[in-house]
Design a protein that fits this description.
This protein is mostly helical. The protein has helices spanning 5-12, 17-38, 54-63, 75-93, 112-132, 137-168, 173-178, 184-187, 189-199.
Length: 200
């Protein structure tokens, strides 16, 4: 691995973090437009052309919101769980081979696919604790609902993630990435579609 400008551009720009962040914002905007059309609404339309910058504006708005802790909340858990959940998601990103290797190459190992899936599942449970710790009955109902959704989605997500691992003959994300002379999404498109649906 050579630490040249091309390497850093691939890690940071394309297909790196900036591209992934922009793609996530686009998917959020596209999903909201589809949902609005299904409900006979306009959806995002003012911020940027066709409202495409609305997810970015919402993200910035969330970052500058006041941190209000309910009076009866379990304050330690309520304040800490969002940070823990975000940190777990960020940790899992470091195992993805954005340039043919893991972002931190020493972190990759055989079986890191299962480890990343376990991290994501644990992060979902931490989000449940965030709602439960507010001691609000409505937040508790929402927390139970979201954990049930995650359980329902995680099972097909894990099963569909095993498809590329089976084709590559490995549970290493870096090896799965390097084995794709022909993209596995083209070899098993139904598994890829199921993975995208479960990922939402």
């Amino acid at each position: 691995m050579s630490l040249d400008s091309g390497f850093f551009s691939r890690i940071l720009v394309f297909p790196g973090f900036l591209f992934l962040f922009a793609f996530i914002l686009f998917c959020d905007w596209f999903e909201r437009k589809i949902m609005a059309r299904m409900q006979n609404r306009m959806g995002p339309s003012y911020t940027g052309p066709f409202g495409i910058l609305q997810p970015l504006a919402d993200y910035i708005k969330l970052l500058i919101k006041e941190d209000i802790i309910p009076h009866h909340a379990r304050q330690f858990l309520f304040s800490l769980t969002p940070i823990i959940s975000f940190s777990i998601f960020m940790l899992s990103i470091f195992f993805f081979p954005l340039d043919g290797i893991n972002v931190f190459s020493n972190y990759g190992f055989e079986g890191d696919l299962l480890f990343v899936l376990a991290l994501v599942t644990f992060a979902h449970f931490v989000l449940f604790l965030s709602g439960w710790s507010s001691s609000n009955p409505y937040s508790g109902i929402g927390a139970v609902r979201i954990i049930m959704q995650f359980i329902g989605y995680d099972i097909p997500l894990i099963i569909s993630a095993m498809g590329p691992a089976f084709l590559a003959g490995s549970l290493s994300l870096a090896k799965i990435s390097s084995m794709q002379i022909i993209p596995f999404a083209l070899l098993t498109p139904w598994t890829f579609i199921l993975f995208l649906i479960a990922l939402q």
